[in-house]
């Protein structure tokens, strides 16, 4: 019975289920995206790459971290398309894949700083209450 209310309702229900499924996939993707940023070494690597493409050795020196650690985190960043590589002779250089990542890190830093100001203000208020 094409066009009947029952069939139309079933189609709407399936479309709604697909929309909900798509929404869940999007949120899962976002969660996985932010998991990549949930490591201080990876954030430091991304910040270091603001200076331009760099080798593992250059990043290791800049971050004062073991080369194996830098390589491990670069592999994760590369697998998730946060960085890309370019070979120059025998050297592999890493660079940011999308400069919008820096905007995201800058926004996170701003939010973090705002939260610190709020906490500091609250602590100063408590200090004044106990002193008074």
UniProtKB/TrEMBL annotation:
Lineage per the UniProt record: Bacteria, Bacillati, Vulcanimicrobiota, Vulcanimicrobiia, Vulcanimicrobiales
Statement: the UniProt record of this protein carries the keyword Transferase: no
Keywords, comma-separated and alphabetical: DNA-binding, Transcription, Transcription regulation
Alphabetical list of SMART domains matching this protein: HTH_ARSR
Protein's UniProt keywords contain Transcription: yes
Source taxon at top rank: Bacteria
InterPro entries: ArsR-like_HTH, HTH_ArsR_DNA-bd_dom, Metal_resp_trans_reg, WH-like_DNA-bd_sf, WH_DNA-bd_sf
PANTHER family associated with the record: ARSENICAL RESISTANCE OPERON REPRESSOR ARSR-RELATED
HTH arsR-type domain sequence ranges: 22-116
A single MF term (Gene Ontology): DNA-binding transcription factor activity
Name of protein: HTH arsR-type domain-containing protein
Listed NCBIfam families: HTH_metalloreg
